[in-house]
Amino acid sequence: MARIDDEMLVCRCEEVTVGEIREAIAQGAFDVVGVKRRTRAGMGLCQGRTCEKMVQQLISQELGVGPHETGSTSVRPPVRPISYGALAEGVF
Asked: In the predicted model, what is the mean pLDDT of residues 17-45?
């Protein structure tokens, strides 16, 4: 399998590249949460829905582990703004 270019974007929301993820893995990240903490991949608007599978694949390739060993992040729904008035009225 051909090596993916380090300049390729993995997380579009936070603009994290393959190279940055590889560097995080080299510095000790061994799962998705570790990569997320070091690079912010998965912390953007999509909360990892776009990039998590790619991060898992890179961890698997770099460390030679199975996909089930790379972990995943907790699912968080998108957040929407709400006014204080709506909170006070209990309408949300």
From this structure: 96
Q: What is the pLDDT of residue 1?
A: 63
Is residue 3 a part of any domain in this protein? no
Query: Is the per-residue pLDDT at 92 higher than 60?
Result: no
Q: Residue 69 belongs to a domain with what CATH number?
A: 1.10.10.1100
Contact between 10 and 58 under an 8 Å Cβ cutoff? The reply is yes
Please tell me the distance from the alpha carbon of residue 78 to that of residue 74, in angstroms, as a whole number.
13
In a domain, 25, yes or no: yes
Alpha helices in the chain (DSSP H): 18-26, 32-39, 52-63, 84-89
Q: Domains in the chain: how many in total?
A: 1
pTM of the model: 0.77
